[in-house]
Amino acid sequence: MTRPVHTVTLDRVGGQEPPLGPAAGWSRRGQWWLAAVAGAFVLAQLVAVGPGMGLGWDESVYVSQVSSHAPASFFSAPRARGISLLVAPVAGWSSSTPLLRVYLALLAGLGLFLALRAWRGLFPVRVLALGGALFASLWVTVFYGPQAMPNYWVAVGALAGVGCFLQAQTDRTRRGPVWGLAASALLMAWMRPTDAVWVSLPLLFALVVLRRWRHGRLLIALAGGLVAGAAEWVIEAYARFGGLGRRLSEGSDIQGGLGWHVAIGDQLRSLGGRSLCRPCTGAMPNPAVTAWWFTLPVLAAIGLAVAVRRRRTPPTALPLACAVTAAIPYLFLIGYAAPRFLLPTYALLAIPVADALVRLVTAPGRAWRPVTVTLVAMGLAGHLAVQYAVLAHTVQRTTAAHEGWERTAAALRRVGVRPPCLLTGPSTLPIAFYAGCSSASTGGPNANADAATITQAAQRMPVAVLTTGAARPPSYARGWRLVRLDGAVYAYIAPTARQDRGA
User: Which of 166, 178, 236, 244 is buried deepest, with most CB atoms within 10 A?
Assistant: First the structure.
C-alpha cells in the first residue's frame, strides 16, 4: 500500500498563495548558477584580500586557542569558541597564515553555496544567484570571508536557517529541511550565541504564537540547535565566569555597557573601511560609499510590496523580519560599530532585494523597461566599483598594520625575547601571538594579570613591556632595559637569567 504524501503549503500557514515549491524552476543548471556565484566569491577573496594578509587582533585570539605557534591568548566573556574549532584542522598543525586563508576562503564559498541552495524552489534561480552575488560582492563580506572571525558564519547560518524553515513549512513530510534548520541554528550559536538568539526570534515567534505556523518538530529542531551550539559557551560560563548571568554581565561591561545607544551613525562611519569604530568619531565617508546602505531598505520594501501583490508574502517577510532583529543590538544597544556586525542582516536582505531588482527589470511596460534596465545596470556597476575601492583601501591599510606587528615581533626576537616569553602593555596581544609569547594585561577588557604576576614571571622567562616613545612604563618596569624596536614602539625588557647569560 502506497503511503500518501501530505504537503502543507505556505498558503495554509500564512494565508498566502503557495511558493514555487522545491522542484519548480529548479534544475541541475540552477545548482551550477549558485556554484558559479560561490566560486566567484572564493576567487574574489583570494585575489582581492590575498592569502598573505597576516592575522588581526581578534583572529590571533581565536587561532591561539588551538595553535601550537603561541600560548592561548586571554579569552574574554563575549567570545565563543566556534571559530577556533573551525580553524583547528589547519591551525592545529600549521602556523601558515596563507594556508589558513585559503582554507577559510574555500569554506566560505561552500557555506554560501549551501545557504543559497536551502532556498531552492522558494524563489527563481536567477533571484537566488543575484542575491548571492549581491551579498558576496560587499566589501565587508569579501574582507571577512577568509578571516578567522565568526560573523560571516552567523550570516550564512541565518540565511540557510530561514530557507530551511520555509522549506519545512512548505512540505511538512520532509525531514531534510528540519535537520537543516537544526544544523543552521547550531552553527550560529556555536559562533555567537547571542546573535543566534536575535536572528531566531521571528522564527520562534512564528512557531509558538502563530497557530498556522506551529510545527512541533521544527520547534524542537530550532531550540535543540540553539541549545547544542551554545552548550559549550554556557558550560564555560559556569566554569570560568561564575555563571551565565555573570558572563553576560561581564560581556556587557567589556562592550561598554549594553543599553540604549543609537549606533546608526557609527555604522555609517565604519562603511568607509574601519574594521572597528571605537570610539567612532570623524567625518562621514563620501556619500557614494554609503549610498547602498540607504538603498537596501528601499529595495527591501519594494520586494515586500511585490510579494504581497503576488500573494507570496512569507518567503519575503520572514527573512526581512530576521534581518531586522539581527540588526537591533548593533544599531540600538551598543555604543560602537564594526561593519562585520551587520553581516547576518545583509545576508538575510540579499534575496528579497534581489527579487525586487529582478521585478523592476522584468515588470510589464515595454516603454520604460530599457530605462529601468539601464538604471539598474548602472547602479549595480557603480556599487561594485565602490565596494572594491573600499576593499582595496581596507586590505592595504590592514596588511600594513599586520606587517608592523610582525616587524615588532622580529625585533623582540633579535633582542632576546623568545618563547617562552611574556609581553604586556598596549596593543601587545597580537604582537605576542606573532612572537610566540604569552600576553598579559593589568586593565581593560583583556585584564588577566597584575603587577606581581608579571614581575614573578620575569624571574623565569623573558618579559617585555611595550610602549610608544612618549609613554612611561609601569612602576615595576622603570629599572628595566629600554630598547627601541620598530618605529615608535619601545620595549622595557626585564633582566632575566637568560639575558644575563647573553642569550
Answer: 166
Residue 53 lies in a domain: yes
Any domain includes 377: no
Q: Tell whether the model's pLDDT for residue 14 goes beyond 60.
A: no
214 vs 465: CA distance, rounded Å: 59
pLDDT in tens, 176-224: 999 999 999 999 999 999 999 999 999 999 999 999 999 999 999 999 9
Is residue 194 in a domain?
A: yes
Residues 6+ apart with CB under 8 A from 132: 34, 37, 38, 41, 112, 116, 350
Q: Tell which residue, 490, 449, 446, 439, has the closest CA to residue 70.
A: 439
First to last CA, the chain: 83
Q: Which of 122, 120, 125 is nearest to 36 (CA)?
A: 125
CA atoms of 139 and 152, how far apart (whole Å)? 12
Question: Residue 416: which of 458, 472, 464 has the closest Cα?
Answer: 464
Residue 325 and residue 200: Cα distance in Å, rounded? 8
For cell 565563543, the residue is 80
pTM over 0.85: yes
- pLDDT per residue as tens digits for the range 113-158: 999 999 999 999 999 999 999 999 999 999 999 999 999 999 999 9
* Confidence at residue 290, expressed as pLDDT on a 0 to 100 scale: 95
Helix/strand/coil percentages in the chain, nearest 5: 65, 5, 30
Task: Examine the fold and report which residue of 230, 255, 280 is the final residue of a domain before the chain moves on.
Answer: 255
Cβ atoms of 411 and 431 within 8 Å: the answer is: no
435: nearest Cα among 150, 54, 143, 51:
54
Do the domain assignments include residue 239?
A: yes
Contact criterion met (CB below 8 Å) for 461 and 422: yes
Residue 278: strand, helix, or coil: coil
Q: Give the HSE-up count for residue 465: Cα atoms under 13 Å, Cβ half-sphere.
A: 24
DSSP-derived secondary structure letter, 274:
-
Banded pLDDT at 11 (limits 50, 70, 90): very low
Domain boundary among 193, 224, 255: 255
Domain range for residue 189?
10-255
Number of domains in the chain: 2
